[in-house]
């Protein structure tokens, strides 16, 4: 099984680790997915890299693959029919020229049917963060369309695989109100695989143990620290700005947040304000309502049941230790 090259910290590196996830993709390719699989997890945990790897695996298994990554402005139709591929790429060019990224996400249904009208075969749709361009309010409708494509196809097919990734906690909530998808979490990289990625970064760097405690295995946070010269304070300050951790917001929920930075499970089962929980989830600061840690519920390896050092609770987890540190620093500044 070939491993693709992905861009990481301005370096071209081979897709690293995630062996169990690769086995899962191969299994999906052999039997198809009966529902769209919606993969959610911390920002920067490697979902995009996994989907790129999945596209290569499925193509090697004989699938006609449509790959959509609107935020990266990457769209491809890796299909056996030159006319359909050309039509898809022309459609993409026109939509990009009109800044209509969402139109491409919806058009994939038509192009799938074009392929199946020519040949009954294997087909895959891989969509990375499409909900951000079509709108979270339309996420459930989009997933329903994908399910209809699987269950009520216009043309027969041999096998179909549909994978959709999202970082937005609110889109998980919107989709989860229905039974139209298999929602599977994916966590930051396991320690051993993350150390392999760390080892590919050139030059002087802090000891791996320190980097692990800061990032919790999140590749994006590792890349950010490398880019900014390992200045942890800058990374924390950037998160505070990006997540809009203003003094007014912090003071409003100070008591709850002070407990949560010590143990995120303090927000579970104690009547924490719904507005606070929606804000934390909507800002992608926490993952709320973590799945059971049995392997079958997760894409790749699940996190530990609890890890206080990394901010992982049984029911709630900070997306990375740096996310927790940004809230902790905002609490300090709000009381200054």
List unreliable stretches of 5+ residues: none
Total strand segments? 10
Derived from helix and strand composition plus strand pairing, the structural class reads alpha/beta
User: What global shape is seen?
Assistant: globular
**What name does the CATH topology of the largest domain carry?**
Rossmann fold
Biggest β-sheet description: 6 strands, mixed
Q: What proportion of the residues form beta strands (DSSP E)?
A: 5-15%
The number of helical runs is 15
Q: What is the topology, as strand order, of the major beta sheet?
A: 5-4-6-7-3-8
Along the chain, the helix and strand elements come as: EEHEHEEHHEHHEHEHHHHHHHEEH
- CATH top level class name of the largest domain: Alpha Beta
Rg (C-alpha, Å): 21 Å
Q: Which second-level CATH architecture of the largest domain applies?
A: 3-Layer(aba) Sandwich
List the helices and strands and how they pair.
Blueprint: E1 5-8, E2 11-14, H1 19-31, E3 37-40, H2 47-60, E4 64-69, E5 74-78, H3 82-97, H4 101-118, E6 122-128, H5 131-134, H6 139-151, E7 159-166, H7 169-176, E8 182-185, H8 191-199, H9 208-215, H10 219-227, H11 232-242, H12 247-252, H13 254-262, H14 274-282, E9 286-288, E10 316-318, H15 321-334
Parallel strand pairs: 3-7, 3-8, 4-6, 6-7
Antiparallel strand pairs: 1-2, 4-5, 9-10
Provide a descriptive summary of the structure in words.
By secondary structure, the protein is an alpha/beta fold. It has two domains: 5-185, Rossmann fold; 191-334, no CATH class. Helices cover 48% and strands 14% of the residues. It has 15 helices and ten strands. It has helices at residues 19-31, 47-60, 82-97, 101-118, 131-134, 139-151, 169-176, 191-199, 208-215, 219-227, 232-242, 247-252, 254-262, 274-282, 321-334, and strands spanning 5-8, 11-14, 37-40, 64-69, 74-78, 122-128, 159-166, 182-185, 286-288, 316-318. The strands form three sheets. A six-stranded mixed β-sheet has the order 5-4-6-7-3-8, sandwiched between helices. A hairpin with a 2-residue loop joins strand 1 (5-8) and strand 2 (11-14). It is globular. The relative contact order is 0.14. The mean pLDDT is 94.
